[in-house]
């Protein structure tokens, strides 16, 4: 099996297989090609890879303004442009160790039984739109600009506490942490927020389902959300089934 090497920041060799590279190329190019808004999908993958627009543009040999036009939908990318775009992301990642290639080639993994539903959006939606879908109310939110998310994960908090260890918590983040983590079977909300608070990777927002009213949510949970700078939402959906159906209806 052909393999390609990369070096991380500690100079330890990381082996990335050619099959991994090809699978990620196909994944990215396919999603861009089938997207109703290819520019937004291109931007999404650039952000997932943690690359700056100017660096990708430089690797492609185009001006940043040109790439910006494509990402904003002012130009429509052809097959050759998409190929160069994907190749640039792959090359830049290999130079940094290939961590993204390895991560996305492994996805989707088998889901932990605590995960009830998970979805990735090809086009981001606002947290407000998701909050409305789950009949949610904000328990805490910043006054900054409204954030966008690329996905959500619905997790049974009781099953997570019982069966999920610290190494498996990463599964809640799917392709990206730019998502909302929605915890069901919640009594007061303290345990999910403690877990989110101590875990190094942070979601864009956290939603709780279970408490009958905002007054039933532990004040510490709200404080932890504020300390972490993470919007906290209480879903008033009648059931977990209704909540998931509403989420699946999001465009």
Give a nutshell description of this structure.
The chain is an alpha/beta fold. The protein has helices at residues 18-34, 38-48, 53-60, 64-71, 79-95, 99-106, 127-133, 157-163, 190-198, 219-228, 240-248, and strands spanning 3-7, 13-17, 115-126, 136-140, 148-156, 180-184, 205-209, 232-235. The longest helix is centred in the first third of the chain and has 17 residues, at 18-34.
Major β-sheet profile: 6 strands, mixed
**Mean pLDDT value:** 89
How many domains comprise the coordinates? 2
Radius of gyration: 20 Å
* Multimeric status of the protein: single chain
Q: How much of the sequence is in beta strands?
A: 15-25%
CATH class of the largest domain: Alpha Beta
Tally of helical segments: 11
Shape summary: globular
Order of helices and strands: EEHHHHHHEHEEHEHEHEH
List unreliable stretches of 5+ residues: 1-13
Could you say which structural class the secondary elements and strand pairing correspond to?
Answer: alpha/beta
For the largest sheet, list the strands in their spatial order: 3-5-6-7-8-4
Number of strands: 8
CATH homologous superfamily title of the largest domain? HprK N-terminal domain-like
Q: Helicity, in percent?
A: 40-55%
Q: Please name the CATH architecture of the largest domain.
A: 3-Layer(aba) Sandwich
- State the distance separating the first and last CA atoms: 40 Å
**Which fold name is given in CATH as the topology of the largest domain?**
Udp-n-acetylmuramoylalanyl-d-glutamate--2,6- Diaminopimelate Ligase, Chain: A, domain 1
